[in-house]
Amino acid sequence: MRFIKVKTRAFTPPKDDIYNLLKEVVKLHNGDIIVITSKVLAIHQGRCVKIKPGLSKKKLIQKEADFTKFTRIKQQKFVLTIRNHVLGLSAGIDESNGNGYFILLPNNVNSLLKQIWAHLRKKHKIKNLGVIATDSHTFPMRRGTMGLAIGFYGFEPQKNYRGSKDIFGRKLKFTQTNIVDSLAAAAVLLMGEGNERVPILIIREASARFTAKSTFRKLIMPIKGDIYYPLLRVLKKS
Q1: What is the DSSP letter of 171?
Q2: Of 80, 120, 217, 223, whose CA is between 20 and 30 Å from 127?
Q3: Under DSSP, is residue 34 helix (H, G, I), strand (E, B) or coil?
Q4: End-to-end CA distance of the chain
Q5: Contacts (Cβ under 8 Å, ≥6 apart) of 132
Q6: What is the reported pLDDT for 26?
């Protein structure tokens, strides 16, 4: 499996064109998975809010989040949120590399990825293609950020080990490998968090199971069925 970093021009808020950017820098092969940062997708949609006096980030977070929990740690205020089935901070709103704008998360991200998937398949004359949208997240009891998929299209997100046996012959009952978030974490590590200007990455020879159907729901665990629900239930619906 190969990870190919794609360096681009600066993608400029409040609005820019992802299709022009892809035309400039991307050459795809059949079976590739293309990874795109959520920030680029959000700017493409114009999901940018000018930072100015009187703007309440708190109200913006409440508007964007599905669930919220305001908290304070060592005199610093934080907002835990769930948006689009992802637990994180501040509903994913970010101002790094925003040039004076808050960058929101993209809307209807899986629908947007399907459109990009269809466009790239046709342009590059390929059948099998995956597309992933990534964001950087913190994780409980770990320092630093890691990449996470906030949406994807074109391939199956899991490898199912249920019913197979481990090395000692014990039948596995629950194990499913989360492929899409594993790929997203590796990709974001290589894309960087600063001024690298690598918002796109191509994963080649990933041996994914490609499909033309939406498979996002296969990855999602309902909140009340999650083993972490006793912790998640402190968040309130926005």
Answers
A1: B
A2: 217
A3: strand
A4: 41
A5: 33, 34, 35, 36, 113, 149, 151, 152, 180, 183, 184, 187
A6: 85
Residue indicated by tokens 């990449």: 147
- Identify whether the C-beta of residue 174 lies closer than 8 Å to the C-beta of residue 137: no
For residue 128, the model assigns a pLDDT of: 98
Q: Average per-residue pLDDT in the chain? A: 93
Whether residue 169 is predicted with pLDDT greater than 90 in this model: the reply is no
205 — phi, psi (to 5°)?
65, 45
Helices (H) and strands (E) in the chain, counts: 6, 13
Q: Read off the tokens for 221.
A: 């665990």
Question: For the ranges 65-74, 126-135, 146-155, 210-219, which has the lowest average pLDDT?
Answer: 65-74
- pLDDT, one tens digit per residue, over 174-188 is 678 899 999 999 999
Superfamily of domain 2-47+105-224: CofE-like (3.30.1330.100)
Q: What is the pLDDT of residue 14?
A: 96
- Dihedral pair phi/psi, residue 175, rounded to 5°: -70, 125
Burial of residue 72 (CB within 10 Å: 0-12, 13-18, 19+) is exposed
Domain boundaries defined on the chain: 2-47+105-224
DSSP 207-225: ---B-SS--GGGTPPPGGG
Q: Which two three-digit tokens encode residue 139?
A: 């994780």
Above pLDDT 90, what percent of the chain? 83
Angle formed by the axes of helices 109-124 and 18-25, nearest 10°: 40
